[in-house]
Specification:
Layout: E1 14-16, H1 32-39, E2 43-44, E3 63-69, H2 76-85, E4 89-90, H3 93-102, E5 112-113, E6 119-121, E7 126-135, E8 138-145, E9 155-161
Parallel strand pairs: 2-8, 5-9
Antiparallel strand pairs: 1-3, 3-9, 4-9, 5-7, 6-7, 7-8
Length: 163
């Protein structure tokens, strides 16, 4: 991504969208475990499974995704409000995994957060969201506190349904 091309104002997100031929079909989905297996992940939080995260039931013909970046520390509620203003929905864990299957090195560029899926940790009484990331050891997905502030290195998966 050319940084000069995506100069954003302080509160304006940068948006990345794939070319038309990169649209993803959720018809191919086989559940979270299947998507995790197809993605060849090095490290996956043990709480990321179909018991804790359920996928969408409806059939989706096409899915266009964007990755939003904010050039400041930002909280999840502000990101969600911005997505709503732009007519976007927060990406779910299943959609994040599907994007990762289609574009295996996607998270190498930045950690990507899926605010559309929330796991409530009853022991600590906090809401956690999935984050795909990359280290020298390989690809991983962890859960992080939804209420924490996210730095400008984070990107947020946003979905626009094709009509």
């Amino acid at each position: 991504m050319d940084p000069e091309k995506y100069k954003a104002k302080k509160n304006e997100p940068e948006i990345y969208s794939p070319k038309e031929d990169k649209l993803i079909s959720l018809k191919q989905k086989g559940g979270i475990e299947d998507l995790l297996e197809r993605g060849s992940w090095y490290n996956v939080d043990s709480r990321i499974n179909s018991d804790n995260f359920s996928g969408k039931d409806e059939k989706i013909e096409g899915l266009e995704f964007s990755v939003l970046r904010f050039r400041e520390m930002i909280d999840a509620e502000s990101v969600l409000a911005d997505m709503e203003l732009q007519g976007l929905e927060p990406g779910t864990l299943e959609e994040l995994l599907l994007v990762e299957v289609q574009a295996p090195d996607f998270e190498r560029q930045w950690p990507v957060v899926a605010l559309g899926s929330v796991f409530h940790d009853k022991e600590r009484d906090i809401d956690l969201v999935p984050v795909a990331y990359y280290t020298e050891n390989g690809r991983g997905i962890r859960l992080t506190n939804k209420d924490s502030a996210f730095g400008d290195e984070y990107r947020f998966l946003a979905i626009k349904l094709k009509k």
